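Retro notes
What went well: the complex prediction finally ran end to end.
Inputs used:
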Amino acid sequence: MKKIAIDAMGGDYAPQEIVIGALAAVKQWQIPIVLVGDEEQIRPLVQAEGMADHPLVEIRHSTEVIGMDEHPGMAFRKKKDASVSVCARLVKHGECGAMVAPGSTGAAVTAGLLGIGRIKGIERPAIATTIPNATGGSVILLDTGAGTDPNEKNMMQNALLGYYYAKEVAGIENPKLGLLNIGTEELKGKPLITKVYSLMKEQEIYPFIGNVEGRDIPTTSADVVVCDGFTGNALLKFGEGLAGMFFTLLKDAIGSGGWRAKLGAWLLYPALSKMKKSVDYAEYGGAPLLGIKGGLIICHGASKRKAICNATRLASKLAESDMAALVERAVAGEAERNGETRE
Amino acid sequence: MKKIAIDAMGGDYAPQEIVIGALAAVKQWQIPIVLVGDEEQIRPLVQAEGMADHPLVEIRHSTEVIGMDEHPGMAFRKKKDASVSVCARLVKHGECGAMVAPGSTGAAVTAGLLGIGRIKGIERPAIATTIPNATGGSVILLDTGAGTDPNEKNMMQNALLGYYYAKEVAGIENPKLGLLNIGTEELKGKPLITKVYSLMKEQEIYPFIGNVEGRDIPTTSADVVVCDGFTGNALLKFGEGLAGMFFTLLKDAIGSGGWRAKLGAWLLYPALSKMKKSVDYAEYGGAPLLGIKGGLIICHGASKRKAICNATRLASKLAESDMAALVERAVAGEAERNGETRE
């Protein structure tokens, strides 16, 4: 198995939760890892887990860290020894197959773009976020924030990235794609979206089910829903905010509901926590940055061990897949096809 | 008080729920109404409510209806006697101060644009949707679907529309505005949004609190959040979908949770329904189409009597407000100011 580089200094709970989470992935799935960051902080944590001499665990010392408040591009260029930059180099030079990057999304995207590099033919990478649906399954939404102002070509490439990710990494047999729009009819939405609609309808690589309204995301039959990175990011974060709000309202309702509500809540607790689990992003670990040569998993800044453990596994799946090669071939094919049809 | 035109034939539950809801508004707030649609269907419903000779209730017969499946623009031009078209004419000619339009949003927007007409200086109308927040209050999001591809001028006009709506109709003392973006920093997001940010920062009409992330909408201190109609619509519908999904998951969790969960749910029921009420769109009735000369409230196609009753009240508030005049003055002022600053 290919090694996975872990930015042990990224996120709100670094390094402890990051290291413990990554080590859990080593124990559970025998994934070889390279913990990148301040060795003085990392080694004791590895020792505490009794894995100091574990053959699958390496530590790579680095002296710098890119903070949430720094400008990603500038910080990345300046801090050559930042843990996230070192991780990107390990992937670029083939020492690792993928990396796990908690913390600043901007820094992670920059590391992917400048540190690892794009797949030949791909103009922009895209972030693919898996969100739970109402049937206990999930749907992949992309782009959720890498390209905020895409053109139709970018969006068509995102569709390809989403398709091969669903097929090769998420393990969906024959992934169906949908297009996020504000109506279900073909001519709905803004010019960019109607253009993308007709292009998705024309292509012959994946089945296209048509427009998907925001309302239908939790119940859509599509495995992948394509959108621009601005809308996708706003949508995703709104969902986060709503989930939080829902549990707040529930708590308030219980708080003001007297003994009856309190007893009810106590009795209902197991069911509620089961439900909360089903919408817990930590179950998915993180969101891959697709379109770059190696795997990169962006983790929520508030990620704890469980999220990092699952993110490490996702990074490994990505590293072991043929996704990049398949995408490169498909993009080349598309370009050719479009070249012909334009004549 | 100005009369309110009610499209009694619009929406999934027309005419019964529409008529009963509008009549409830007459009873509660003495709002004069004109019920527009098939008199043969409407009159018996009014009689059943014992309001056949009520001085505040009129019926205006119309023979046509615009269906959800029809192309709004074409249908509106073709069907001069459609109930929604007749309502628009009643407002345009000053017989009514505002209209309530359940059913097809497209038909309602077309009726507002072509039937009633824009406020002088406003390029595009905007739909303003009030969404409940985590503190039991609410926030006004606009545009949620009228202009899917706005430029910075359109978005600045939407900000003005949102400000005066919050101040003059929603009754918020000194409304604060925010801009929907994918980060809180000034330079985040796509070019259009950074441009709008700097323009909102410059203007001196309303207080601007800066960027608001999707995640923060339920907790933002902004009274009005400005966004493009594509993102706003996708966001809103995703929220609808999530709320539905949450209650589905809750039901499933209870269903599979055995007697303990069922008893808990029964005990918690009053608290849960109180909570559900706080996120019920029917409480708000509908969303106004802002930027047109008269008031127009767009109602959800599934609106029942409660939503229509509240929508009729909102339409009356809009009709009694000076909003259109204030907006026209503000837009003229802005245009002048920009003319100067450009030199």
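What we learned: Chain A is about 50% helix and 15% strand.
What to try next: split runs per interface for comparison.
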